[in-house]
Write a structure and sequence with these properties.
Layout lengths: L13 H7 L5 H12 L8 E5 L5 H8 L3 E6 L2 H10 L4 E4 L11 E6 L10 H14 E12 L1 H7 L2 E6 L3 E10 L4 E11 L3 E11 L3 H10 L3 E9 L3 E4 L6 E7 L2
Parallel strand pairs: 1-2, 1-4, 2-3, 4-5
Antiparallel strand pairs: 5-12, 6-7, 7-8, 8-9, 10-11, 10-12
Length: 250
């Protein structure tokens, strides 16, 4: 991948994302972290939030006493992250190409952020970068939407209507390509009405593909879960709509 490429596709959507979606997955993210990872790291652990978005998770972890560094490819998303979690370090960098010294007890990537990585070799690069940034014995926790999840939830239109903007979204999934698309058309009133269009593709990976890429990157003790707000965490099955992966840098 050329070094100048940085995933900035969220730039035009950042302000809408911050208002409506930035904390939408926060309860699930925190439940996963508390049950699977935070109980296994020091109380003041250093945490790397890969694809941190608008910073709501980083803010929540900081309030719990953890030392958090956020990383994202979208300059606009990081503007809101710095407002939401002032005083934290946020790094503008692509998850596929970042390099950080080995100083973190835990790396996380939540809310299907890594589904935006569209090639398995590039997903493996993310894993290698996270592995390099972890201390020996460090943990990596992330989630991915499964094919069942895309089939069940990624069809149809929705909309947001406010006095100064309208956002219309469409979700779709191609089983043949294993590619999902989130498409948004936004009309925003500033001096006049302005239109912007955003298309965000996501890739569906099998559990076997992800495991293979993690192992090739040096991770061990790979375990997978699904999560339901009512029943909690349980073993991943073919009917699971979201997969949580937890693995160890030995």
């Amino acid at each position: 991948m050329p070094s100048h490429r940085r995933y900035s596709d969220y730039d035009n959507l950042a302000w809408v994302y911050n208002r409506h979606w930035g904390d939408r997955f926060l309860p699930t993210s925190l439940a996963a972290l508390e049950n699977l990872a935070l109980c296994r790291v020091p109380g003041n652990a250093s945490i790397l939030d890969v694809c941190c978005g608008t910073g709501q998770l980083a803010q929540a972890l900081t309030k719990r006493g953890y030392r958090v560094t956020g990383l994202d490819g979208s300059r606009e998303m990081l503007k809101f992250a710095r407002q939401n979690a002032p005083g934290l370090q946020f790094i503008l960098s692509d998850a596929r190409t970042f390099t950080l010294p080995s100083g973190f007890h835990l790396a996380v990537s939540m809310f299907d952020s890594l589904n935006h990585v569209l090639a398995l070799r590039e997903l493996a690069a993310v894993f290698s970068n996270a592995h390099a940034a972890l201390l020996d014995g460090g943990l990596f926790l992330f989630d991915l939407i499964t094919e069942k999840g895309y089939q069940a939830n990624w069809e149809g239109f929705s909309g947001i209507v406010e006095a100064d903007y309208v956002c219309i979204t469409k979700n779709s999934y191609s089983q043949a390509e294993r590619i999902a698309k989130f498409e948004a058309t936004i009309f925003r009133l500033e001096d006049h009405w302005q239109r912007s269009d955003v298309v965000l593709p996501e890739k569906c990976y099998s559990e076997a593909e992800v495991r293979s890429a993690l192992e090739a990157s040096g991770f061990v003790n790979i375990v997978t879960y699904e999560y339901n707000g009512e029943s909690g965490f349980k073993k991943l099955t073919k009917d699971s709509e979201r997969a949580f992966f937890l693995c160890l840098k030995p």
